[in-house]
């Protein structure tokens, strides 16, 4: 987030250099990326093959979506920081070293996930430029005022360098936009698993007094409420980000599949395959985890009900009944306040890709480019 201009150093000369220097450079990239794509499509429309046109159009939609998601995250960055503080308080509720180790393992899993996303996204850019060098054309043929890539080898490689820097920046924005929600939800599910394990220990020790059992129940209730506060804190950020992603994924996926029908060599096909994997990573894992998160609440409710509470004192029973009512209400994230984030919604949105292919085939775009 510091690298892409979202978080600045707290103080010192680096803070002002970062704010007035690096952020200005980042703002120029964000403004020029969509403008350069539009100019490229207008100026090079007669020089593009059908596959190159689809690649540029798909990349333009993806970058537009990445910028929209980044603006959303930047405006709500305070909620992400607040959620981090709530997670710190949540970690203080861990009772045993085994629970802390479980959370550390989930953090290590999050690190590996970021590495996988970064590898796939950067791999897409790398394969694009490998195909560009093989074809002797820049992948996007973005318009630059100072030089033209057709004026010799030096101009060609300088143009490649400029496009590479801009696309790498867009890719880093995509990694940050598409992983933060996934990582937070993994940590939430880990704490839910720890809470479920603690619930199974309620009234399991016959040597504990009723006061100690009640205190243990109160600790579980506080733990559950802390998880809910974390979810409510990050809910608006996730809702808007996934809504933007749902809006663009159908068209981007359709254009990617359509491009595969027109490529005629391996080097042009490879970036599209990597792009297809990157598109699936943007929504599929998070939607799958959202379904699992709903199931976690169902299992938590069953775990509360299965505790030996029949012979407990009246205060314990009344508190437990209220706790069961709260646990039975799962956390469901809503994309843009319109539809729930789930595998069912993800499949419905992905089906739009086939509609895009049908529309493009009916327009006979291949014949228009000949």
Summary keywords:
370 residues; mainly alpha; two-stranded antiparallel sheet; 2 strands; 1% strand; elongated
Gist?
This protein is mostly helical and 370 residues long. Helices cover 78% and strands 1% of the residues.
pLDDT averaged over residues: 80
The tally of beta strands, per DSSP, is 2
Proportion of beta-strand residues: under 5%
Lateral strand order in the biggest sheet: 1-2
Radius of gyration: 25 Å
Structural class: mainly alpha
Shape: elongated
Distance between the ends: 44 Å
Order of helices and strands: HHHHHHHHEEHH
Number of helices: 10
State the helicity in percent bands. Answer: over 70%
Largest sheet: 2 strands, antiparallel
Q: How would you sum up this structure, described in words?
A:
With 370 residues, the chain is an all-alpha fold. Helices cover 78% and strands 1% of the residues. It is built from 10 helices and 2 strands. The chain has helices spanning 13-43, 50-75, 77-91, 97-135, 152-199, 210-260, 266-305, 314-327, 343-362, 365-369, and strands spanning 334-335, 339-340. Strands 1-2 form a two-stranded antiparallel sheet. The chain is elongated. The model has no long low-confidence stretch (mean pLDDT 80).
């Amino acid at each position: 987030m510091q690298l892409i201009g979202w978080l600045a150093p707290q103080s010192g000369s680096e803070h002002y250099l970062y704010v007035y220097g690096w952020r200005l450079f980042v703002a120029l990239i964000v403004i020029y990326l969509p403008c350069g794509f539009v100019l490229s499509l207008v100026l090079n429309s007669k020089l593009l093959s059908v596959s190159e046109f689809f690649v540029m159009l798909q990349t333009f939609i993806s970058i537009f979506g990445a910028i929209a998601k980044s603006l959303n995250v930047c405006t709500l960055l305070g909620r992400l920081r607040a959620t981090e503080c709530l997670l710190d308080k949540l970690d203080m509720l861990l009772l045993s070293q085994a629970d802390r180790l479980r959370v550390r393992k989930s953090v290590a899993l999050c690190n590996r996930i970021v590495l996988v996303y970064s590898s796939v996204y950067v791999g897409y850019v790398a394969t694009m430029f490998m195909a560009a060098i093989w074809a002797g054309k820049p992948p996007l043929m973005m318009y630059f005022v100072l030089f033209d890539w057709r004026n010799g080898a030096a101009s060609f490689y300088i143009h490649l360098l400029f496009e590479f820097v801009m696309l790498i920046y867009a890719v880093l924005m995509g990694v940050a936009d598409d992983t933060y929600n996934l990582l937070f939800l993994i940590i939430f599910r880990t704490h839910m698993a720890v809470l479920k394990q603690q619930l199974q220990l309620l009234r399991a020790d016959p040597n504990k007094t009723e006061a100690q059992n009640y205190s243990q129940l109160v600790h579980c209730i506080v733990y559950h409420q802390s998880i809910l506060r974390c979810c409510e804190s990050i809910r608006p950020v996730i809702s808007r980000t996934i809504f933007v992603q749902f809006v663009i994924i159908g068209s981007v996926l359709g254009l990617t599949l359509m491009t595969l029908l027109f490529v005629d060599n391996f080097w042009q096909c490879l970036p599209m395959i990597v792009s297809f994997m990157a598109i699936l990573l943007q929504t599929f894992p998070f939607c799958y985890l959202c379904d699992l998160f709903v199931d976690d609440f169902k299992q938590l409710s069953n775990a509360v009900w299965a505790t030996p509470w029949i012979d407990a004192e009246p205060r314990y029973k009344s508190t437990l009944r209220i706790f069961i009512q709260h646990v039975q209400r799962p956390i469901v994230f809503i994309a843009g306040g319109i539809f729930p984030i789930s595998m069912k919604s993800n499949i419905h949105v992905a089906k739009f890709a086939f509609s895009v292919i049908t529309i493009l085939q009916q327009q006979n775009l291949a014949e228009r480019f000949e």
